[in-house]
């Protein structure tokens, strides 16, 4: 088991529920994620949500990103504007713009080059122009985009578009990024690029947190420290209540399954357990 400790909360969801036209979509969503620390290592986090289609993952993500106002409950994360020295920032309710969102289409500005798009992403940062340039160039090199920095979205490959969309959110000065099905429709090479992007994000700031959903359970188990199954709960009569909620949590770090380069038999056991939880909900 890789040694780690947990400290202050970095994401807290309390009694969250959402109704559309009087119909409950999700309810009783509660969880609290703590900051993970590892010796001599910057360790951001990855949190996975899995479940059948229609169970409310998109609705939950809209709440986590501050785009959806819940009927009840709240989403809390650190107020980075009040970060002082080594102390953890106080918690605040999430607002629009606090969390970056990368959709499945990897939407980019058609009229901006890669470099110009990243400049725009950094527009609110209080840095000199030369400092912004240097920061952008470092990220372009790290993310394998330096050779396409002057190209427009229609000139990029799918993988390059995706990395640019993710990098826009990284440079927009948010520590939280939601990715909706980041592996959908990708080939093996581009899947590896996204896995590398997760690692780059997590290792660049202690509070950097990637929140993602996927139908690929093996990738969820491979990449996450915490994995949640969102589904329909079973009632006393054995039927499913058609309102999404958290069915199960797998704390992969405490199970000794986080931060492995290769999946082991124990990982595959958990993959099967997760699949069963999904099928039953």
Tell me the layout of helices and strands.
Blueprint: E1 5-20, E2 23-37, E3 45-50, H1 57-64, E4 72-78, E5 91-93, E6 99-102, H2 114-121, H3 129-142, H4 158-171, E7 176-180, H5 188-202, E8 209-213, H6 217-223, E9 226-231, E10 245-251, H7 265-279
Parallel strand pairs: 3-8, 3-9, 6-7, 7-8
Antiparallel strand pairs: 1-2, 1-4, 4-5, 9-10
Distance between the termini: 30 Å
Q: What is the CATH class designation of the largest domain?
A: Alpha Beta
Mean pLDDT over all positions: 90
Structural class: alpha/beta
Strand order of the largest sheet: 6-7-8-3-9-10
Task: Describe the protein in words.
This protein is 29% helix and 26% strand. With 281 residues, the protein is α/β, with parallel strands linked by helices. Helix 2 packs parallel to helix 4. The longest helix has 15 residues, at 188-202. It is globular.
Q: What keyword list fits this structure?
A:
single chain; 7 helices; 281 residues; four-stranded antiparallel beta sheet; 2 domains; six-stranded mixed beta sheet; Rossmann fold; 10 strands; globular; alpha/beta
């Amino acid at each position: 088991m890789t040694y780690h400790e947990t400290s202050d909360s970095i994401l807290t969801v309390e009694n969250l529920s959402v109704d559309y036209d009087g119909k409950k979509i999700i309810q009783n969503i509660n969880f609290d994620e703590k900051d993970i620390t590892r010796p001599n290592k910057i360790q951001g986090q990855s949190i996975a949500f899995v479940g059948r289609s229609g169970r409310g993952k998109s609705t939950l993500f809209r709440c986590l990103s501050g785009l959806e106002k819940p009927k009840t409950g709240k989403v809390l994360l650190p107020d980075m504007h009040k970060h002082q020295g080594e102390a953890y920032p106080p918690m605040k309710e999430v607002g629009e713009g606090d969390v970056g969102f990368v959709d499945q289409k990897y939407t980019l500005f058609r009229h901006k080059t890669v470099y110009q798009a990243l400049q725009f992403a950094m527009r609110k940062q209080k840095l000199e122009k030369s400092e912004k340039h240097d920061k952008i160039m470092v990220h372009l090199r790290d993310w394998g985009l330096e050779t396409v920095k002057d190209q427009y979205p229609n000139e990029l490959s799918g993988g390059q578009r995706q990395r640019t969309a993710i990098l826009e959110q990284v440079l927009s000065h948010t520590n939280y990024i939601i990715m909706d099905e980041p592996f959908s429709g990708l080939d093996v090479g581009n899947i590896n690029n996204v896995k590398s992007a997760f690692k780059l994000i997590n290792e660049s700031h202690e509070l950097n947190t990637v929140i993602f959903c996927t139908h690929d359970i093996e990738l969820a188990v491979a990449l996450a420290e915490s994995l949640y199954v969102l589904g329909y709960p079973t009632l006393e009569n054995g039927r499913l209540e058609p309102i999404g909620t958290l069915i199960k949590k797998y704390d992969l770090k405490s199970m000794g399954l986080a931060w492995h380069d290769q999946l082991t038999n124990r990982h595959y056991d958990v993959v099967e357990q997760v699949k069963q939880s999904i099928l039953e909900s």
